[in-house]
Fold:
Amino acid sequence: MFTHAIVRKPCKNLVYGIRDANLGTPYYKRALIQHANYVQALRHCGLEVKQLEACEDYPDSVFIEDIALLTEAFAVITNPGASSRRGETEGIREVLQEFYEDIFEIQPPGTLEGGDVMMADDHFFIGLSERTNRKGAEQLILLLNKFGFSGSTIEIKNLLHLKTGVSYLENNTMLVAPELKGVPYFDGYNCIDVPTEEKYAANAVWVNGTLIVPNGYPITLQKIKDAGYEHILTVDTSEFQKLDGGLSCLSLRF
Structure:
C-alpha cells in the first residue's frame, strides 16, 4: 500500500523540454489543469500528496519520477542520463529526509533515471537505455540486495524509458507495449498486450487497488477491464505526452 506521493508543478518553461514526439508544443495552462487533475486522482486513491513548487530552471522538472527511486526501505537520488536534467536533483535530499533515514545517491559515471526502474513486488526491473547505463543499474542492484530486494537489467530499444513500454499492474500482471511484447523477462506474468496505435497507454499507475490509465485509449481500457480490473480512473495527460512523459513520470509514489 502507498500512503504518500511527491509531485512538482509544471513550470512555464516546460515548452522547452526535451521531446522526440512530433505532437506539437505543450500548452502551459492546459498542462496545469491536467496536472491538478492528476494530483486529484492520486488523492482519490488515498495518497497524501506533497507538491513542490515549479522550477523554471529545468523545463522537464515536472517529471519528478526520474530524479529519485523510493522503496519501502530506502530512497535513492538518481543521476539523470540527460545532462540538462542533472540539476533537478538539487534540494531533493531535504524533501526525502522528511520520509526516509536511508538515502543514497547514484555516483558517476553511473546514470539512472526512475522511469527506467519498474518495481514488481520485491523485484526491480531496470531498463538499460540512453538515460540509464549499466554502471548506474549495478549500483542500484547492490543497494536493492542490501535491503532484501532483487534486481535485473533489460536492454531496451526504441523506447525512452523502460516504463514507457511496460507497467506492473500488481496481481502478477504486466501491461506491455509492442516494443516489449514476447520478451522473456516477463515469462510467468500475465501480459496484457497494448496495440501499436495505443502504445502510449502502456504507461499506467496502480495505486492501492485503483488503476490510473491515460484517457483516450479504448482498446487498452477494455483489455484491462477484461483482465478483471474494476477500479479504474482515466486521466488526460496529452500535454505531457508531447514531452514524451506518461502517468508514472509525474509522481513519486511510496
Observations:
- The chain has a mean pLDDT of 97.
